[in-house]
Amino acid sequence: MPYISLRIAGTATKEQKDQIAKEFSDTLFRVLNKPKEATYLVIDEVPRENWAKGEKFLA
């Protein structure tokens, strides 16, 4: 059972999340022969004002 944890700065639309889930599960099936229905994906949307690179926040 593959488990993918993905953090992104900001938000994604439902359609974007659907595409991410499809492409991750397609890749794991193609490369590792893992069944798509066994792949778990969690997308963590972090507000840009809570995400910094060095001393500067992304917002």
Looking at this protein, list some descriptive labels.
32% helix; Macrophage Migration Inhibitory Factor; two-stranded parallel sheet; alpha+beta; 59 residues
What does this structure look like?
- The protein is an alpha+beta fold.
- It has a single domain, classed as 2-Layer Sandwich (Macrophage Migration Inhibitory Factor), CATH 3.30.429.
- Helices cover 32% and strands 31% of the residues.
- The protein has one helix at residues 14-32, and strands at 3-9, 40-46, 52-53, 56-57.
- The strands form two sheets. Strands 1-2 form a two-stranded parallel ribbon. The chain has a two-stranded antiparallel ribbon with strand order 3-4.
- Strand 3 (52-53) and strand 4 (56-57) form a beta hairpin.
- The termini are far apart.
- The mean pLDDT is 97.
Annotation, overall tally of beta strands: 4
Gross geometry: elongated
Q: Could you name the CATH class?
A: Alpha Beta
Task: Give me the CATH fold name.
Answer: Macrophage Migration Inhibitory Factor
How helical, in percent, are the residues? Answer: 25-40%
Strand order of the largest sheet: 1-2
Structural class: alpha+beta
Q: What is the total number of structural domains? A: 1
Mean pLDDT: 97
Q: What kind of sheet is the major sheet?
A: 2 strands, parallel
CATH homologous superfamily designation: Macrophage Migration Inhibitory Factor
Along the chain, the helix and strand elements come as EHEEE
Q: From the alpha carbons, calculate the radius of gyration and give it in angstroms.
A: 14 Å
Spans where pLDDT lies below 50 across 5 or more residues: none
Judging by the overall fold, what is the CATH architecture? Answer: 2-Layer Sandwich
H/I helix tally: 1
Termini separation:
36 Å
Strand residue content: 25-35%
